[in-house]
From TrEMBL:
Gene that produces this protein: rbsB_3
Designated name of the protein: Inositol transport system sugar-binding protein
Cellular component terms per the entry's GO annotation: cell envelope
InterPro entries reported in the protein's UniProt record: Peripla_BP_I, SBP_2_dom
Gene3D superfamilies documented for this protein: 3.40.50.2300
A GO molecular function held by the record: carbohydrate binding
SUPFAM superfamilies the UniProt entry points to: Periplasmic binding protein-like I (SSF53822)
Keywords linked to the UniProt accession: Signal
One Pfam family linked to the record: Peripla_BP_4
Single GO biological process annotation from the record: transmembrane transport
Main localization of the protein described in the UniProt heading: other
Organism from which the protein derives: Klebsiella pneumoniae
Location in the cell: Cell envelope
Amino acid sequence: MQNFIGQGVDAIIVNPVDTNAVKPIMDQATKAGIPLVFVNRRPQAELTDKMAYVGSDSILAGRLQMEALAKAMNGKGNVAILLGDLANESTRDRTKGVEEVVAKYPNIKIVQKQTAKFTRNDAVDVVSNWMTSGEDIQAIASNNDEMAIGALQALGKNPNHILIAGVDGTPDALQMLKSGKMIATIFQDAKGQGEGAVDAAIKLANGEKVEKIIDVPYQLITKENMAEFTNRNQK
């Protein structure tokens, strides 16, 4: 950040790792008079002049995901949640969205919530432990696709037919949808967020006004509509 300021850049785009620790970055940018655009992860601080956030509503992602699971569960059963990085706002908000939907279904209960830090390998360990301990689980809501795929790896042939849903719409997740191993993922428009962040940064650098919160909507992906998303988040 200090290097960018020292170079006299016209604007800075940041994807924060810890959304609770952005205040120093914001203070530095404000002091230097340089526009600052956050992308993908919403900072847990009030945006001031010459600042914007471009991203998606993570609560909506959780709602869409859990509604798909609830429908597949016929409105009853036990669900476990694979949490991402606990310092990340998307973990908190996606989980909140899942919990809001579960609250509407008296016969669905959340029986486990544990972090796997957004990684496939950690999810393998977490879900393996759940299975070893004999947890009665009918569905797993994962805060991202990587953990959802890790859950599938832990379940092997998935003899209990546990339903899995993720978030991001990655190419690997779409393959899992195609094969019927996952029932849903939520498309996060990474390209749209990136383009939106650059557009906002250019406008702010030119002295134009932009909305402080620029929303790039999430969309539900199932086996039925996955064809239209196949090329949208390619690696």
